Amino acid sequence: MRPRVLFLTVMPSPYQRELFQALHSDGRMGIRVLYYTNTSADRNWSLGPLSAYEEILPGRTIGWLGPSAHVNRTIAGLLKNESSDLFVLSDYSAPTTQIAMRVLSRRKKRWVFWGEVPGLNRRGRLGSALRQLLQRPITGASAVAAIGSGAVEAYQRIFPEIRVFDIPYFCDLAPFRAATTTRWARKKYTVDALFSGQLIERKGVDLLIRAFAQISNLAPDLRLQLLGTGPELQALTGIIPYELRHRVQFLGFQQPAALPQIFAAADMFVLPSRHDGWGVVVNEAIGAGLPIIVSDRVGARDLVENGVNGFITIAGNVDSLASALFKLARSHALRESFGRSSANRAAQWDVDEGVRRWVELSDQVLYA
Which of 179, 294, 195 is nearest to 254 (CA)? Predict the structure, then answer.
């Protein structure tokens, strides 16, 4: 009999829904997905109706506690009556997850924590103590599904007695492959470096603009395309030198269906985050066959081999970022070589690989 697996996660993001749909279609696991909230203030996705196995729990977010303070008061009663074989929980800082971890442990249910690298956002002594307190219930988990190799190392160090599986984020890359079939045959007179993400300090877009300005005279064909929106938009616009403003384009927020064509029009992808637990946009970039620049504090650097399909730069270091930009901007041959390597790697990172890893985890936790 196939195992019944209940996922408790924050919201119906496009990439998670693609994974859940693939798991449901695969059929080796019977899944149910409960979301804490339907959206957040900084997400404007138009996602369409939920599937039969998806549900948004009644609840609210306590704003003064932060954006992760999701409270779903029905969760304890729901879990006491739930007969799933395995439970998967994400976001340990959410009050709902804190309740769920304790309820499942008391009931001696098998559950898995699914999380990004902990501790990327450095805190003071009080903040670090609070983080450790919130992490403590994870000791009751049967396993941890760590999102990338950096998270694997961190959780193995924090919880040496718990099995840790490497299960990063996966998404459907087929639309990105389909959109980019003629990239290297086209004639183009600019070199477009694409960023995709929220315009917030953590994402390092200010570093990208400064690195671009530093090499702009040496790479006159280079342009920046900044996809996304956020509270830093006005500040970022203000740091662009006047004479370079025509070479920096803010694309605003775009719905997921528009992304493959935007990625297809780019010549390289850049995610210069000061810290980033993963970064699904890097999955999309390899799906689009793009050369990639990421910082060494981006979890999705697992998808980038330095000097093979991109460059891994020093987080927060403008000179390091400028050097990588310049190398790719000046060499069509290097961009093509790196791009083909990214396209080859994409086959190992499609959503089917995510299904395989989750099925393997379920078998190991329930039957091994």
Answer: 195
Strand 191-196 and strand 70-71: the pairing is unpaired
Asked whether 6 and 88 are in contact (CB, 8 A), the reply is yes
Contacts of 264 by beta carbon, 8 Å cutoff, 6+ apart? 176, 179, 180, 183, 288
Angle between helices 332-346 and 318-330 (to 10 degrees): 100
* Other Cβ atoms closer than 10 A to 106: 11
Q: Which pLDDT tens digit goes with each residue over 82-120?
A: 999 999 999 998 999 999 999 999 999 999 999 998 865
State residue 158's pLDDT score: 94
DSSP state of 197: S
For domain 4-172+350-367, is the CATH number 3.40.50.2000? yes
Strand partners, 364: none
How far CA 201 is from CA of 144, 153, 214, 282, 338, in Å, comes to 29, 26, 20, 18, 28
**pLDDT of residue 282 exceeding 60:** yes
Architecture of domain 174-346: 3-Layer(aba) Sandwich (3.40)
- How long a stretch of residues is the chain? 368
300-325: pLDDT as tens digits: 999 999 999 999 999 999 999 999 99
Indicate the average pLDDT of the chain.
93
Q: Are 33 and 53 in contact (CB under 8 A)?
A: yes
Query: Quick one: CA torsion of 169, 297, 201, 317, rounded to 10 degrees?
Result: -150
End-to-end CA distance of the chain: 15
